[in-house]
Structure formats: structure tokens, C-alpha cells
Amino acid sequence: MALLSRLIIITAAAALVLSYLSTFINPATFTPPLFFGLYFIPLVAINLLILVIGIVRRSGAAWITFVALLPSILYAELFVRWGDVQRGDEGISLKVCTYNVGLFAQGSGGMSRTASLEGVSGFVAEQQPQVVCLQEFHIKDTNEIAKRFPDYPYRYYHLFRGRGNSRFGNITLSQLPIVNQGKITFKGSTNICIYTDIEHFGKVIRVYNTHLESHSISFTALVKRLREREKFTDEIYEVHDKVAGTFRKRSLQVDTIAGHMHDSNLPAIVCGDFNDTPMSYTYKNLAFHKRDSFRQAGKGFSATYSLMWPLLRIDYILYPAPYWSLSHKTPRIEYSDHYPVVSELIIP
Fold first, then answer.
1. Alpha carbons 189 and 193: distance in angstroms, whole number
2. Does residue 146 sit in the same domain as residue 212?
């Protein structure tokens, strides 16, 4: 029994340590640690439970769990935050919103696409961000964009052809002049990153609107096969292959965007759906030398994927120093399976 307990302790601690390492390892090179990064919060919870049990039982092996948990303190603010805004120098505000609208087909309660689109346009009109980055935007007639978002005379989008003459992709809406624009496409993928250079009171700022590769896994199918052990095992292998492939694709997309930013001399704000947690190669590389609106001004969990709240924060607004965030909000509205992220940035 003692041997089994020690084995559980060591296994849980090792899994947590691997989740720390996941941020440093490129999935295109080596995939396994990235799976542990996905489950960082559950792994912390499991190890905390083991530590409490170990202390109560006065187990000599409790120190293993304690040591494994220590680094998690450094990562905690990636997921949950309380405290005051970390203020910087005075400047001019720029309110930014990023929102994966789920093709206007993921609203709660079987909401229609039209109702979802109306809800999103109403939300944007109410919030009045100066820059809006939408991912998985869906439209049949692009002339309708101006009607739905009349407060945004400047627009740039890249939309792929969908079914029934529909189009989908990323769109950036701006109340400020767009002086340049472009796109970063990824081979064999309908995920995309578009960028717009926006004139903000005499300064030009580049805004990247990003939607990275998703897992596209059928968890419903997994649940249905729980009763059929052989099929369930096959499904597990299939899921592993899909996730591993997604990690590799996403890491290449991240490297491409990071390289594009490096080659530009403009200050860059990176918005969008990364489809990855803060404990990831994706986040670490796109946030390199950047600040995170949540880490400066967020409160509570601020998870952005509604179906697994409060575990998954996968939508972000990142920006360079000396910019700072005066506010960070993730309103829990029901027009998509994601929540929007709204932040008022201060540009010194």
C-alpha cells in the first residue's frame, strides 16, 4: 500500500513538472509534454489534494508534492488574478475587443445565426471599442458588414468560401484610419492571421487578428464509446493523433507570426483565439517581450471558452511595453461558445 501511494505521488508530481516544461518545448520537435500543459489546473488541484492528505497522514513523501507545487505559484497569475491594475505612464487610451464569434452558429439555446450576429453587433455598439478583432466571422453578403457595424468606417478582412455561397474568416473593424493591411495564411488550413496598421493620434500601431489551429476533437464521440471498450481505445488513439498533429501545425503558425512581427519595426498588438492555454509554447512565443491585459488588469479567472469555464483562457490581447492595460473584461454573453475580451490600453 505504501509503495502504491508513493507511486501515485511521484506520478502526479512528474506530470505537473512536465506541464511546466510544456511552455519551452516546440511541439513540432517533441509533442508529449504539451498534453500535460493542457491539464495544468487539474494537475495542480490533484497535487494539492495529495499534499493535504500527506500532511494529515504525516507522510514522509509529502515533500515530493510540495517541491513539485512550488513553481506553480509563478504560473498562477496566468489563470487567476486578484489585485489592483498595474498602472504605467499617462497616455491616450485605445479600447480593443477580440471575439471568436463561432461562425454565429455556437450561440446558447439553439440561437439562430441572425440572432447571434445581431447580438454581437449590439454588443460592439454598446462597448464602442475603437478596434474590434473578430474570428470565425460568417457572412453571405459582405455589403451587410457596413450595415451591421455602422460605427466602423475602416475595415479589413480575409474570408474563405464556405457552403451556400457563404464566407468565413477574420475581420478587423476600426474607428481609426487603417493605413496598411495584410494577411498571413497557413498552408492547408482555413486558420489565418490578418494585420492592420492603425493610425492612433499620430502613431502607427500594428494589430494582428489571429485564429490559430484548433483541436477539432469529437468529445461527444468519446463519451458515446465509453461503453464499447475496444472502440473507445481506438478513439483515444485517434484523439492523440489529432491533438499531436494540431500542436505541430499550431507551432508552425506561431513561428510564422512571431517571425513576421520580428521583421516589422512597428509596435504590435496581438489579439485573437490562440486555441491554447497560457501553459503552452503558443502563448510563450506570442507573448515574448509583451504584456497580457489579463495579467495587468484582470480579476478572477477570466476564462474565455464558455463550455469549460473557468479552466480555459485561450483568447488574448497582448501588447508591448510601455503600453499598459487600464481594464480587462470577459463579459459572459451567450452569442458564441467563446467570451469576448475587452481591454482599454493606455498608449504613452
1. 11
2. yes
Q: Supply the pLDDT for residue 1.
A: 58
Q: CA quadruple 331, 77, 270, 347: dihedral positive or negative?
A: positive
The phi and psi torsions of 225 (rounded to 5 degrees) equal -90, 0
Q: What is the DSSP code (8-state) at residue 228? A: S
Half-sphere exposure of 300 (CA within 13 A, CB side): 9
Q: Which amino acid is at 347?
A: I
Find the angle CA(39)-CA(45)-CA(46) to the nearest 5 degrees: 85
Q: What is the largest CA-CA distance in the chain?
A: 70
| 43: its cell numbers | 494537475
The pLDDT value given to residue 145: 96
> Given CA atoms 191, 149, 340, 315 in this order, what sign does their dihedral have?
positive
Predicted local confidence at residue 223, as pLDDT: 43
Which residue range(s) make up the domain with 9? 2-78
pLDDT tops 60 at residue 66:
yes
Burial tier of 249 (Cβ tally within 10 Å: 0-12, 13-18, 19+) = buried
Average pLDDT of the segment spanning 309-321: 90
Partner residues linked to 95 by β-bridges: 344
In the predicted structure, residue 217 carries a pLDDT above the cut 90:
no
Cα separation, 170 vs 136, in Å, equals 6
- What is the pLDDT at residue 119? 97
| 100 lies in the same domain as 241 | yes
Distance of alpha carbon 196 from alpha carbon 178, whole angstroms = 6
Give me the sign of the Cα torsion angle 282, 261, 269, 287.
positive
Please tell me the total number of residues recorded for the chain in this structure: 348
Record the pTM.
0.88
Residue 122 within any structural domain of the chain: yes
Please indicate, yes or no, if residue 86 is contained in any of the structural domains. Answer: no
- Residue 198's contacts (CB-CB under 8 Å, 6 or more residues apart) are 131, 154, 174, 176, 177, 178, 179, 204, 205, 206, 207
